[in-house]
Description:
The chain is 40% helix and 11% strand. The chain starts with 11 loop residues before the first helix and ends in a 22-residue tail after the last helix. The N terminus is likely disordered. The site of flavin-adenine dinucleotide (FAD) has 18 residues, from strand 1 and helix 12.
Amino acid sequence: MSDTIETPTAQDDVVDELRTWLAENWDADLTVGEWWERLGLAGWAAPGLPTNAYGRGLSRNDSVRVQTEIAEFGALSAPGGLGLLLAAPTIATHGTQEQIDLYVRDIVTGTRAWCQLFSEPGAGSDLAGLTCKAELDGDQWTINGQKVWTSFGHVADLGMLIARTDPELPKHQGITWFAFDMHQPGVEVRPLVEMTGHALFNEVFISDGVVMDDAIIGGRGNGWAVANTTLMHERSGLGSGGGSAAAGMATPGTVAGQLDKRVGDFVSGPKKRRSASSGGGAPIGGGGAKLLIDLAKGNGAIEDPSIRQDLMKLHTLGEIGRFNNLRLKAAKKAGQDIPGIGNISKLAMSDIMRSTRDVGLRIIGAAGMLHAYTDDQRGAIEAATGSPFGQMVTSIALWAQGPPIYGGTDQIQRNIIGERVLGLPKEPGDTKNVPFSELPKNA
Ligand SMILES: Cc1cc2nc3c(=O)[nH]c(=O)nc-3n(C[C@H](O)[C@H](O)[C@H](O)COP(=O)(O)OP(=O)(O)OC[C@H]3O[C@@H](n4cnc5c(N)ncnc54)[C@H](O)[C@@H]3O)c2cc1C
């Protein structure tokens, strides 16, 4: 008997079409840019997008299946990053066809990379309290303000900028979403180094930056609704039950400089096929019950019943995430939705990350205190511990603090579920009606 419930597969004809297409189109001697152009324009880079936005209108599960097929074939995966994850679905939802052709085409073909210019030093959870200013002069806006925690800002060509276009309106109403050019004199990007040793995110200072009126997505003053679409994709896209199937990775956009490289150099050949019942649990955010089970078997930690119990809990959390995805798929097929599912998925992912961190560190014990910041250190730690995997556990443990914060903290997800799904009373105050300029601000 199988130990997991089988995942329903994508429509066989879609998979067959993809396999035939891959056989005809994959060529390791193309450049990364040439390959991504083929993949993106054929609708396989973002198959979940509608057909008028370079997609194929597939469900999330079927889109994951497409990624897996591409990886199993041994071809380079679609251009990753925040363009594909956030900007493309936002523009596909709120943009005009002209904007879709201008921006989404470059995202699915990996030509341009995007970052998300939402958070500010005084506006994170209270995102609608943002103060970055946009002032109109003719058909051009001048932008002044500071953004922070801007992931991949250092390799971005464009930014999803939300800025205040009318401080005399209540705070949620005077906000506008712009497609903002990062390559201009008024933009300064400064890296912020995390405890992992990487500098994934940045501070971005904008001084008299400019953006044209036709780069507004979703209409002037409608930025809160547009930003909520972006956040909804962030929460559900990063939530549990998905997982990357990439055979290889390359960075999109003009800054990273990988578009002209040979695509075959970014992949290491076909990936082994994985059946849903092959054990070890569903793919889980940033970790993997399978890796931890193998580590625990290898060093004897598996003999500890409390570790076995924690591994089982981790596996169960991954499976619940997968079942929620299946429930959502069934609901969507019946023309329904599951209110709050994106928020629930994100909370589940935070739990999975914390559980992965905790049980992982218990399995590897004192070796979990060793973290490599350079290649030399990586080699030294591997030699000292006799295994490359301990460092993966430590890296995951250091990273585990991020997911419960980005895309809206756990507390904010719970507030949203409470207020918008369960109908609980909102926080006191009259922020919906008072002009932003009259609201008290942080010092
Ligand atoms: C790894 C990482 C990547 C990120 N990438 C990006 C990015 O690319 N672009 C971007 O714009 N931002 C990004 N962020 C920023 C992220 O969205 C914010 O950190 C997040 O929204 C929280 O805001 P804050 O840090 O200002 O914390 P605060 O809002 O100051 O919150 C501090 C604490 O107070 C709690 N809290 C605040 N308000 C409430 C409330 N009403 N009810 C209950 N509890 C509350 C919070 O839960 C939190 O525990 C990233 C963050 C991380 C960690």
